[in-house]
Amino acid sequence: MTDGPDHPRPPTVAVSRGTWPRPTAARLIAIANQKGGVGKTTTTVNIAVALAQHGLRVLAIDLDPQGNASTGFGVEHRSGTPSSYDALIGTRTLRDVAVMTSTTGLQVVPATVDLAGAEIELVSVVARESRLKRAVATVLADHDYILIDCPPSLGLLTVNALVAAREVLLPIQCEYYALEGVGQLTRNVELVRTHLNPELTISTVVMTMYDARTRLADAVIRDVREHLGSAVLDTVIPRNVRVSEAPGYGQSVLEYDPASRGAQAYLSVARELAVRALPPDERAAELQRLGVVDGDIAPGSAAQVVPVPWPPREQREAAGAPVTAPDGSVLATGVAARTLGWPLRAGGGPSGHLGWPAEVASRRGDGSDRSAGA
Ligand SMILES: Nc1ncnc2c1ncn2[C@@H]1O[C@H](COP(=O)(O)OP(=O)(O)O)[C@@H](O)[C@H]1O
Ligand SMILES: [Mg+2]
Questions:
Q1: Cα–Cα distance for residue pair 173/65, rounded to 1 Å
Q2: Mutation choice for ligand 1 from 38, 42, 64, 208, CB with most ligand atoms inside 8 A
Q3: Residue 94 sits in the same domain as residue 215
Q4: Closest atom of ligand 1 to CA, residue 244
């Protein structure tokens, strides 16, 4: 970044500490994707802190027995600590189990390992899918945002989050397997909407862990935008080591290293989310008030990198047709080429990893991005 007197920072980098728009009613958002390691928890923690730093009242509920969000927020979550488990089972209210944090306006409901048993314990309970909805109803008036960090599964805990929420925020990692499982999630959201929660929508998609060195990352972003449209936020979260270091200190990256690219990107994502609380015709004026000029996209966004031209969808979907990059190299053939279309197969991955450039194949080979629940 070229800071200094001759190179003033662009307005999006210096996100002001002013207040962001307050929604007319509490926004209830489940951060969900049944894939592990896509950035659900990281997104929950950093958005929660960013919103609270800008004058909004935020409750973050950790609904993953692994308690990663609790770690990230730096709150106690040893077994036996009053937690989301108690609120689900009904032995305590959410207000009883929520703890204050060092960030003004931010409260957190921790998760402990006890929650792992809840999935089974709840099976025999009356209205087992709406336990969290009941618990949340009692605190709606206290908060502007209630964010629910879901576990990496589509079990009863996630269903409780989807029934309690009005919106789903879907983090998608900028990688080859990005859309894998998204079809399954959207079907589940559809099921919940039909049977249990007619209000539910996938309102927001955040692209995470963008790596400019991966030639496919831009193509993935474009693919996701093509399929999920205006729900996809303009800001893309870059892969940034500061983001992954912060939880080790029980902090969001906004506190750990506010100047880092990761922190700036998460601020920008949270601001976009907040501005979306406004009716569409008021958003542009609000962004202007916040100092964001039209077309000015935050650091880490796809707009700042040289795009990789990508073949049209029809070509990718054509059975067996090899997908080629502009330089003539074959990107995918057969099943892999078809699987790049929509909807992608849930789970398992395409069987035909044929024809990917060696560089791409080796990146995928280590499996590090696929370790569910990591
Ligand atoms: N933008 C990022 N840059 C670098 N590391 C990241 C970033 N986002 C997430 N991570 C790291 O990736 C791992 C998985 O992220 P996490 O938010 O825990 O995913 P999930 O909750 O979906 O399982 C964590 O170790 C986290 O620190
Ligand atoms: Mg998580």
A1: 22
A2: 42
A3: yes
A4: 27
Do 112 and 152 reside in the same domain of the chain? yes
Domain range for residue 328?
313-364
| 171 C-alpha to ligand 2 centroid (Å) | 11
Domain end position, chosen among 269, 297, 325: 297
Q: Which residue has the tokens 């908060």?
A: 143
Note the pLDDT tens digit of each residue in 25-67: 999 999 999 999 999 999 999 999 999 999 999 999 999 999 9
pTM of the complete model: 0.78
Determine the distance separating the centroid of ligand 1 and the alpha carbon of 237, expressed in angstroms: 11
How many domains does the chain fold into? 2
Ligand 1, atom 9, lies closest to the CA of: 39
Q: What digits encode the pLDDT tens for the residues 220-273?
A: 888 888 888 889 999 999 999 999 999 999 999 999 999 999 999 999 999 999
Gap from CA of 106 to ligand 1 centroid (Å): 21
Cα dihedral 287, 292, 297, 299 in deg (nearest 10): -120
